[in-house]
Automatic annotation (TrEMBL):
Organism: Limimaricola hongkongensis DSM 17492
Protein name: DNA primase
Top-level taxon in the UniProt lineage: Bacteria
Record carries keyword Zinc: yes
Protein family (similarity comment): Belongs to the DnaG primase family.
Record text on cofactor binding: Binds 1 zinc ion per monomer.
Enzyme class: transferase
UniProt domain Toprim: residue ranges: 243-327
Amino acid sequence: MVGRKVAWDMKKSNQSKGDFWAPCPFHQEKSASFHVDDRKGFYYCFGCHAKGDAISFVRETENVDFIEAVKILAGEAGMAMPERDPQAQKKADRRSELVEVMEQAVQWFRMQLRTNAASAARDYLAGRGLDDGAQARWELGFAPDDRAALTRALKAKGIAEDMIVAAGLAAKPDGGGALYDRFRGRIIFPIRDGRGRAIALGGRAMDPNARAKYLNSPETELFDKGRNLYNLAPAREAAGKGEPLVVAEGYMDVIALSEAGLRAAVAPLGTAVTESQLQLMWRVHPEPVIALDGDAAGLRAGRRVVDLALPLIGAGQGLRFALMPEGLDPDDLIRSKGAGAMREVVAQAQPMVQLLWRRETEGHDFDSPERRAALDKRLRDAVAQIREPDLRGHYEAELKRLKWELFNPRRQGSPTRIDRGAKGGFFKPGQLPLAPSPSARASMLATGGVVEDHLREAVILATLIATPEVLHEFEPALERMDCRDPDHAALVHGILACHHETDLRGALAARLGAEALETLFSQRHVAISPGVRKPGDTEMARMCLAEELAKLDARRGHARELAEAVEDLSGLSDEGLTWRLSRAAEALDKAGRGDGEDTTEYEYGTNGAPMRRDERSELDALLGTIAFGKSGSKDG
């Protein structure tokens, strides 16, 4: 069928694999950018982004509806079309009649918008930035504040009362009597299905005291509000040309987005997003962007979508969330700051895992092991809903990375509460690093051991990459490792994020670039390390890692105690204290190198780090001097 409409480029095509290329029949071009995968029955143009299957190709090129396209293809294949079930045919005919009633109502409402009675409605729309052209494009109308104006107009055209009721346009009073219109004193928004047929209406009240600001058609034979989306057909066309699918809250948001150039915009119809609507979105775009209003209600709605989506997401089928500035919806933002501001918000949309993290951490305290364990459980329970094992593994890795950042011991103290910043970001009270005093910056405490730490970190990271089989044993220690070098910190993040990958080194190269790994492994002290020289030797890797991590922890444990001692001085200092600090720093440096180390003579510092007894005595004496000095002694 396709071959009769195009001229195949036989040099570029591979017939044996069902791979065909030709100039596109949908736009004028000379190059062969139109691709057909004959095995999958799918076409795609890399120029104009037209795509679809055999039925959509026939519909587009022959300008026929779905049934006619199926008949044409059946004829091409020499197959007879099955006879339609009489009941199904009757139901289809009934739906066609109701669609025609709805079309008559849409046209009548559009005419009413041009009357004197609709002057306030026109002023309102103009104030929202919708001129006559926009009103026509969106087929906006007006329902007069008259109990039965529409019913009278439709009956005058010969439409029976039962059809008017069945279409959801009017209702019968419970106690009997004449029909009354469902939409009165409202701006009308026609709702069309994916085939462009009018199936329902939405109405915005002009009376600020109306019981409902927005009113939708009731459920009818045509309209299931949980299975349709506003502006679906135009959005699908725009998304097919590469535009992001943006899901907003209401009609005016969709109109504002589309008029601003974001034409692939849809909205649910007066309800929270349903599973059917999510599946409908994914048929349009693999990663819809949910635009959340910048208020508490918007965030709650986003959290509900996360719960709904977790069991449904899969590879190539996810969601992103665009967080609007506080107090604004898309329409507000576009009118106040322009289309560019909205495009920027959409471009910065966050993946769903970020909203899940926010939901489970924002406003919570984590100042005890029990509360941290509760966070772990909530995250495990959420991720357990993901059905695809590979995707579940990626979520676990990303959440582990976020927890590592949250509880990173490099920050002062432990995080106690996660709060929202003024612009919707996060800050952790009391987590800013202390600025060292001038004397501390000049002392050995600030400079001693930094190079040595860097060397040990490099050996630890390289050993884990060379022998990733032991990573699960040392993962907790890696999470606690406080890397001052941003390159090392990036490697730690990368290893934790990619720990489940079969080829850890390849995954890190893809994530951080090959140069980062080349820099790490080209260092001489790394290259000569036994754990690196013997990749895959798990016993050697374990011994190397245990030794390097123990020495790193010991040296940093002493450093933390000495740093706290310096802070406690609060400006008190003399030559004796300076000398003792210098001696303690030398002992610290010696401990980190392991010089003369006797493993049977270890005690533990106040932070749990191992230290030799002579070093413990040195530090105890120093701390005693500080305490004595702070008590006011002249010998301070």
